[in-house]
Structure formats: structure tokens, C-alpha cells
Amino acid sequence: MQVKDLGEFGVIELLNRMVISQRTGPDNGAAFSFGLLVDSGDDTAVWETSKARELFTTDTMVEGVHFTRETTPWRDLGWKSIASNVSDVAAMGGLPTYALITLGLPPATEVNSLEELYTGMLELGNRFGVAFVGGDMVRSPVVFITVSLTGIMKDEPMLRTNARPGDLVAVTRDVGSSGAGLKLMQGFPVETGDTADYLRNCHRRPVPEVAAGQLLVKSGITTAMDVSDGLFDDLSKLTRASGVSARIRADQLPVHQHVRQRFPDDWLELALTGGEDYVLLFTGPKAGVDSTLTSLGEGAAVIGEIEEGEPGHVAVTTASGEEISLEAHGWDHFL
Amino acid sequence: MQVKDLGEFGVIELLNRMVISQRTGPDNGAAFSFGLLVDSGDDTAVWETSKARELFTTDTMVEGVHFTRETTPWRDLGWKSIASNVSDVAAMGGLPTYALITLGLPPATEVNSLEELYTGMLELGNRFGVAFVGGDMVRSPVVFITVSLTGIMKDEPMLRTNARPGDLVAVTRDVGSSGAGLKLMQGFPVETGDTADYLRNCHRRPVPEVAAGQLLVKSGITTAMDVSDGLFDDLSKLTRASGVSARIRADQLPVHQHVRQRFPDDWLELALTGGEDYVLLFTGPKAGVDSTLTSLGEGAAVIGEIEEGEPGHVAVTTASGEEISLEAHGWDHFL
């Protein structure tokens, strides 16, 4: 059955039933997100607020631009569309709370596909205590998914503007795995085995670093962002926002053995420019970063330091200090 | 210059400068919306919350589905994209606070058009104290605009589920003017004169009923929604949500003289099925509704009453009690 057979209101009712029946139990955001007073179905959702800081972000995926159905099945698309938003909240040090989902759909979209999409959304959302409280569904010649998400925190949010010369630069987890998964699917779509499974899963099911974000804030870290467009580009954005430059060491980048082994010639490029890893990139004085790293999981590592210099410039060097030339890839939708 | 010439980040910077330089001064939402701690440009926006109720809504407009460039210039499109969201907040009785804007754009979109779009958004937003705090911009084969908006209130929100048999049904302003404006532009695109100006303006620049929503809540009204899809359809939704039916009187509908005079054969259909008037539809016991009406402006009127019966059924009768047959138009995107 297609969307045009069931109709807008029929589809909305079906998806709402899925959301309500699978609504999250107690989890990360639960302490905050169960102040819900008015659920989806009215003019707006309504919840109780108390004294805190609220976070607000949105992210959109468009078919043919951000994903294709070949490399991203509907269920994984649902997962990723929520994960990218939760990752933004994690990068501030907050917990996600409420989400609205907007779907732009061709009339011939299969209803089963939307159930798959929502299954993936709920899998990721329930893991982090997100409550889905409404949205919009519209006809469109191309599939697009816009998620807007609120979050909450009591501490000081971590910003992109706080990096200072002398700060160490670190990441919470290894980088390049999602990009390696995409490269594998595009070049070797039928490859099997543990390495292929691992890399594909990294691309299709990235896990946002909510707990790591909490840990960074509690450890006194004040500068962070999530790596969605690739480490090199995102560090360039962070340093531009802070008015500083950075130097990172290629040999210190945490890159998973599956990535190094499967792509021996490309792992460095994947680590520097592959997007959608959703690790957190953070900076801070040496003592604070070092002690924070001991509490983070596998892959967390210092990768370089912040320097005075042209805002936004990022130099990449080898262990021997030789500079590696790297073009800014700049994931710009329109250039 | 087109978006593909300036690039994503260039366009974002340009539009952000517009937003910051024209950010609203003290207005409706100002008491709430100036707790902003982190503006657009970081992973998320951040603001302070206190003990209150927060509202959350989203609405999307797609080119060729919700608008065409012939009947809706870019500046009016900006106005309407914010107005439809503010109207949802008004229908709960709240004040709008923070908005995120997502733009889906073909690369050949003129940058001037986006400046026009944002001018319209800021005109409406500033009038009601909305602070624009970020968003997303993506490449898309078709223009779409998704706005997500938060709001705030201290009182009990008005719901669609509270209508009870015996309640009077009322509207805060006259209906059908926006639909008449659209009909005029589609059939008589070059018509001039006061009537044409008035009707076109009603379609292009609808004003959400924020003050009326506040007044309803303060008057003890507990049931309301905004009329975006047409009075008949929206009253049908309200009565379905409340498990009741309704009877409205065609001769009691407030319809502006310009609509009656310009469309003597169609004014009733326009009043019942024309969308995007953004008046508030509300119900309540006679004493409360009557006293509320005296405080509302021109056009506010009782139009019928709530009855026991098939949930969602709406009967329309003449002054002499004769029933008018009306097909549910049902603005369904996919049927």
C-alpha cells in the first residue's frame, strides 16, 4: 500500500500509534521528558518547564543529496535522521528531550517504508529518551526528513568559540569508520565478512555521544562540537569560531583497525574528511583533557593542539613534523 | 547572484546578519525570548527556561503544493511560513518565542529572493516577538520551507478535545477572505481596486490571532484551534477530537463585505472551505462565549453549537433550518 492509497491522515494515525505504543520508558532524557502535557494531535505539543537551559536544533536529510536508498535502507535512514540531531545536543553537553518529525513524501511512497523509517527513529530515540510529539507530513517530489529537537541541561553548554592557544585537541572516539562504510558500499556493494559488516554498520547506525558529552561538561570542558562533515572541516569551523588555528598529528588520529586494514591507502583521508562519525571534538588545557580521556572509552585520544594563527587554519603533520597538504573539502551543498 | 555562486556558508552568513541586525525589540514574546544564551552558529541554540509551559510546533510549505511563485511572492511566502506556525501557538493561548528555519533550495535560487523571504519572515516574526536562532539549509530540486517554533504560556492551554454538547461555536474574526484572495489571483490576476487589494492582502499577509488567543485563555475558554484548512474541515477535526458533532448556521458566518460583493455566488463556499484565514475557532458555554465576544474585534461571532452525535460530523443549516449539503473537502496531501 502506498501513501496515496492510505492518505495523509491515515498515515499520520498509523505512525502516531507506533510512536505512542513504543514510547520510551525511563532513560537518559526521561527525568525531563515526562512533563508532557499535550501530545501530538493538537495545534502544538505542550510540556512543563522548570529552571534549566533548553537546547534547540534541526537537521534535514534529502534523498539524492544526503542519502540514496541503495546505501541507506529506510530503517537506517530513520535512525540517522534522529542521531544527527541528538549528536548536536550531545555536543553541547545536554540530554535530548522532544522531537517533531516533518516528512516530505512522493505520493507513491510505500507505507511499509514509513513503518521501517519510524522503527529506526524509535530505536535511536528510545535509546536516548527522546519523545516524539508531533510534526508535519507534506507531498513532495523528493523524500526529505526534517527533525527538530529540543534538549536540556543544567550546566554551562560547551561552545565552538571557547578554544584558546595552547589547548589540546581531542576526540571522544575513533574517526573515519562511517566514511569507510560508505566507500565500501559504493565501491564493493556485495562484500561480506566481519570487516564489511563493521564498516557498513558504522555508516548506517552511528551512535551519538550523549554520555561522552555529559562527561565532558562534568569534567569542566568548555569547547566542543560534533564531527558530522569530517574532522578536518569541522575542526576548521571550530577554530574559525574561536579565532585560532590548529595543528593535528596524522599518527595520533584514532582510526579503527578495520578501516586501516581494509583501506591501507585511504584510511588517513577517510579519518580526516569522512563525515557522519558523530564523535565529539573538544579542546581544553592539558590537565583537564588528560584526566577526561581516562574516563572516556576506546578510541578517545589527543590529536593535536590549538595555536595562534589564521582563524580556521588547520595544519596536519606527520610524526616527523612534515606537513601534509590537504585541500579543504568543505561539504557545501551548493558549490 | 544565485545560491550556487555564493555557496551554502555565504548564504547562511548573509541571512544570519539580516536576522541579527533586525532582531526584534521588546514585543509580545520579549519577556520570554531574551533569555537567549547561545545564538545561531553553534551546534544548537540555548536559552534559559523557568517554571512555565512550553509549546512546540512545526509547519512546512512546498512549492507547487502549498504555494506557487505566481500567487505568493517570496516576501509574502516568508511572512506566511512564520504566520502559520505562530497561529498554532496562538490557538493554544501562548506567545511564540524561538524559531528554527530550514530551507530546501535549488542551486539556481536567486540570493535576492532569499533576502526577500527573510524580510517577510522578520516582518511577521518581529511583530510577535519571535527570535530566529538557527536552522538548516539544504539542496533540493524543489523549494521547501520548514519552520519549527517554540512558544510559552503560564495558563492552561486550549485543546481540541474539550468541546462538549451545548457549547456554542464561535470564531474570532471573519472567514473566507484568504480563500477569496486566492480565487481572485487565480482567476483575475490583473484586477485592481480596493476590493482586489484587500482580498489579495488577506491571502498573502494573514495575521495570526496571538492577542485573541491570550484573551480567550484569560476568559476561561478551554477549547480552540486555528482555521488553516478551512472552517468546515477544521471544525470537523475539532469535533472528532472531542467525540461530538456540530451544527453551524450559514447566515451567522462572519464574511467580509468585500468577499460577499466580489463573489456573490461563492462567498458561502469560500467561508466554509477556504483555508489560511488563521482565525481561531473556539467553543464554550454560552455565558463565557458571549462575554468573550464583547472583548474581541470586528467579525467575531457565534456561528453554531456543539451537539451529541457522530464524532466529526458538521451540519450546516440556513436561517430557516434547512440543511445545506456539503462535501468534506478534506485538504489531504495524498488523496
Could you characterize the architecture of this molecule?
- In chain A, the strands form three sheets. In chain A, strands 8-10-7-11-9-12-13 form a seven-stranded mixed β-sheet. In chain A, strands 3-6-4-5 form a four-stranded mixed β-sheet.
- The first copy, chain A, folds into two domains: 3-153, PurM-like, N-terminal domain (60s Ribosomal Protein L30, Chain: A, 2-Layer Sandwich), CATH 3.30.1330.10; 168-324, PurM-like C-terminal domain (Phosphoribosyl-aminoimidazole Synthetase, Chain A, domain 2).
- Helices cover 37% and strands 24% of the residues of chain A.
- The first copy, chain A, has twelve helices and 13 strands.
- With 335 residues, chain A is of the alpha+beta class.
- Chain A has helices at 3-6, 8-21, 30-33, 74-92, 111-127, 177-187, 194-204, 210-218, 231-242, 257-262, 267-273, 286-295, and strands spanning 36-38, 45-49, 52-62, 95-105, 131-139, 144-153, 168-171, 223-226, 245-249, 280-284, 301-307, 314-317, 323-324.
- The first copy, chain A, starts with a helix and ends in an 11-residue tail after the last strand.
- Chains A and B meet through helix 1, helix 2, strand 2, strand 3 and helix 4 of A and helix 1, strand 2, strand 3, helix 3 and strand 4 of B.
